[in-house]
Amino acid sequence: MRVALACPYAWDDPGGVQVHVRGLATGLMERGHEVLVLAPARTPPPEPWVIAVGTPVDITYNASNAPIDPRPWSRRAIRHALATFVPDIVHAHQPTVPSTGLWATLEARAPVVATFHSGATRARLYDVVAPVLRRALARIEVRIAVSEHAAAFDRDRLGGEFRVIPNGVDVQRWASAAPADLEAPEAWGDS
After folding, report:
1. N or C: which end of the chain has fewer CB within 10 A?
2. CATH code at 181?
């Protein structure tokens, strides 16, 4: 299967969504799928399966930094990448953010799955644009939220069904980790 993943946040900035998309891409490739990741980036991505489709702008929103590319002309690069790759499915992350996830949702010719990551408690701007987003996101076939909180946050604004699938953990990475000795005084630091 050919899977295009659209990450709205700068690929070369630290962040949970980027870690999620990177892990998902790696897991899919290990299972034999062809993967293409589309994301804004400040520098050329080192992974051959990632295409930078815009330059991020740091936007402060919801007490956090969102390194997104809100410029709609990055849609041209996304359209070209999708047309060249011809995915069987497009998996857009945080498609309500005006960045790669939303643009990929609008440009996709394949079925769209979307993952909603928001942990916000309020979002006035989102409340204002939600009616327009509802129409734009109507083509999403499956809506996934990483928590019940994220599902409720987006369901309240967009309506529709959400499947809650929590973020995964690479258990092999931690399989040989020794448990911490919480009884030992040094585990608690200076008291």
Report:
1. C
2. 3.40.50.2000
